[in-house]
């Protein structure tokens, strides 16, 4: 029983370790998509030193800046260490880059055109 049990456990541990290492070493470009009135996801994690590719999948224009919506109020604000994003224009079906994000932390971006359109960027 021990002869079968030990290799099985060792195989499971090695498989788990490889899966974790693959997820942690993902150094590909971070990408977020824009829908008609929102970011396709509310938050994204990027690696320190990398940029964020933003893709507008619709014909809807967007204007992205540092800050966030709080209810019906736009709150422009730039966290310390965040790249400056001030009125980045998307005219529909276009792609732009934000960053690089040089400092680990949590940063907020919003679209000044669409109430409630917020993105949290977590840099690790």
Automatic annotation (TrEMBL):
Residue ranges of domain Blue (type 1) copper in the record: 36-124
Annotated TM spans: none
Domain of life of the native organism: Bacteria
Signal peptide region: 1-21
Keyword terms of this UniProt record: Copper, Metal-binding, Signal
Record PROSITE patterns: PROKAR_LIPOPROTEIN
A Pfam family assignment: Copper-bind
GO molecular function: copper ion binding; electron transfer activity
InterPro entries assigned to the protein according to its UniProt record, in alphabetical order: BlueCu_1, Cupredoxin
Protein name: Blue (type 1) copper domain-containing protein
């Amino acid at each position: 029983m021990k002869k079968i049990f030990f290799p099985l456990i060792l195989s499971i541990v090695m498989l788990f370790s490889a899966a974790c290492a693959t997820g942690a070493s993902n150094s590909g470009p971070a990408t977020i998509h824009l829908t008609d009135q929102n970011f396709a996801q509310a938050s994204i994690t990027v690696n320190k030193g990398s940029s964020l590719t933003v893709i507008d999948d619709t014909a809807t224009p967007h204007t992205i800046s540092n800050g966030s919506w709080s209810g019906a109020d736009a709150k422009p604000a730039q966290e310390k260490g965040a790249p400056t994003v001030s009125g980045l224009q998307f005219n529909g079906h276009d792609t732009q880059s934000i960053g690089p994000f040089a400092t680990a932390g949590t940063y907020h971006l919003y679209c000044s055109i669409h109430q409630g359109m917020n993105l949290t960027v977590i840099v690790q």
